[in-house]
Amino acid sequence: MISDYQDEHFTGVEALWQDAFPNDAPWNRASVAIPEKMRFQPGLMLVALEGSQVVGSVMAGYEGHRGWISRIAVLQTHRHQGIGQALLSEVERRLAALGCVKINLQVVESSAAVIRFYEEAGYEVEPRISMSKRLA
Description:
Blueprint: E1 2-4, H1 10-20, H2 30-39, E2 45-50, E3 53-62, E4 67-74, H3 83-97, E5 103-105, H4 112-120
Parallel strand pairs: 4-5
Antiparallel strand pairs: 1-2, 2-3, 3-4
């Protein structure tokens, strides 16, 4: 079942992210990212639940021009069951309802399985250079 993120899901999402993104930067950790996400567009933070267990999550955003998928993860024990696709479809639906016409995302170049997941969902690799600047 896909549901809006609630505070009681934090521990499950934190464990999921630690498993899915083991070398994460400190500013991407659940304890930092989720409270900030919940201050802005909380309806774009979703979880996949099996009973009360968090088995997947997606965090997205929309700034009025483009949508972004920041994180999507599914427990390793629950992959290849359509959970990631269900999360992706629901967040795409919500972004479209906000007027979003294009969604961007970034994938680590060496993540062939993740790239294949997105390509199967209709995403295409665009020739771009990703740049960033930390403000804090």
